[in-house]
Design goal:
There is one protein chain. This protein is of the alpha+beta class. The protein has a domain of 148 residues: Up-down Bundle (Glutathione S-transferase Yfyf (Class Pi), Chain A, domain 2). It has 10 helices and 12 strands. A hairpin with a 3-residue loop joins strand 2 and strand 3. Helix 3 crosses helix 5 and helix 4 packs antiparallel against helix 5.
Length: 320
């Protein structure tokens, strides 16, 4: 708990950087360093099962980012993602519902990487093949376009299959959690078909004119709806907030079932639009699933008795 501006969000951001190797807010590591300083460091200690874990992430304007796990230097800080799953809710996460299709594609591709790790590479592989085909289209090089067309069709079909499988996994826990939080008949559906080589070749002339590929999963969307209403266009902010929270809790439940260690949940300002009943539902949803950190301005705003209460003030975190 802590007053507005005390640093509660900064604390959660530091935990995300320390467990995932990157910030959920920005991809500019320089923004994570205090104004007037040239470096910062995050140190975490915890337990995973019966084993202790020590993590260190160093940020430097001059030297970039470095990470260590149990004293061993990692090749890249983002390797920490393979050690612990961390899910975060912040107010700007409403973009998953409110923003355009790109925000939803990115979110669900990250979820697929966590829940279907063997296929975590597909989104990046597809994006690389798409960039190569688009470059060839801009040059008008038909000889070069052909092999990238074939590769793009294969990767695109695999990516669509993965996204559809992910939504099938999330559908039931998402609907149940959303219903418990007051969002009735919540539903996820994929909008788009797997590309084929024939389809890509049939529209080659149009793609050459545009200099870009006009069909494929890079243009698809995921519908997030309640009682037949698309929440992006027809949902209130409270409904959009509930949908995002239900998505996070649904994924957390699946990760807890499929992994040896449950995910770390970081819930920032999640209580502001939940009534007392739904706050209690939230406690039931996160209870017994590992560690969850919830921020609030006062202790009486917290749903139930916390396992540990921390008071955050500028520059200090004190256990109460």
């Amino acid at each position: 708990m802590g007053a507005n501006g005390a640093g509660k969000t900064n604390l959660l951001e530091a935990l995300h950087v320390g467990t995932q190797g990157f910030s959920p807010r920005t991809r500019s590591d320089a923004e994570l360093i205090r104004f007037g300083e040239s470096a910062a460091r995050i140190r975490l200690e915890g337990r995973r099962g019966q084993s202790s874990v020590r993590v260190g992430v160093g940020l430097s304007i001059a030297e970039g980012k470095r990470a260590e796990l149990d004293g061993t230097r990692l090749r890249a800080a983002e390797q920490l993602r393979g050690e612990t799953a961390t899910l975060v809710f912040t107010p700007d996460r409403l973009a998953i519902v409110k923003a355009g299709p790109a925000a939803r594609r990115a979110y669900f591709d990250r979820s697929a990487a966590r829940l279907l790790p063997a296929r975590a590479h597909l989104s990046a592989d597809y994006a690389a093949a798409l960039a190569q085909r688009n470059a060839a289209l801009k040059l008008g090089d038909r000889m070069t376009i052909a092999p990238w067309t074939s590769q793009l069709a294969g990767l695109g079909s695999a990516l669509v299959e993965t996204r559809v499988e992910l939504l099938d996994l999330l559908a039931e826990p998402f609907a149940e959690t959303a219903d418990a939080l007051g969002l009735a008949e919540a539903r996820l559906s994929y909008e788009g078909d797997a590309p084929t080589e024939v389809e890509l070749e049939a529209r080659l002339e149009r793609d050459l004119e545009r200099g870009s590929t006009g069909v494929g999963p890079h243009l698809h969307d995921v519908s997030i709806a309640s009682a037949g209403r698309d929440l992006r266009s027809f949902g209130s902010q409270g409904e959009q907030r509930t949908a995002v929270l239900a998505l996070l809790l649904a994924e957390a439940a699946l990760l807890a079932e499929r992994r040896d260690d449950p995910p770390l949940l970081l819930l920032d300002d999640v209580l502001s639009e939940l009534d007392p009943l739904r706050r209690r539902v939230l406690v039931e949803q996160v209870g017994g699933r590992g560690q969850t950190l919830i921020t609030a301005t006062t202790a009486d705003a917290l749903p139930g008795e916390p396992g540990q209460l921390l008071e955050v003030s500028p520059g200090a975190v004190v256990a109460r």
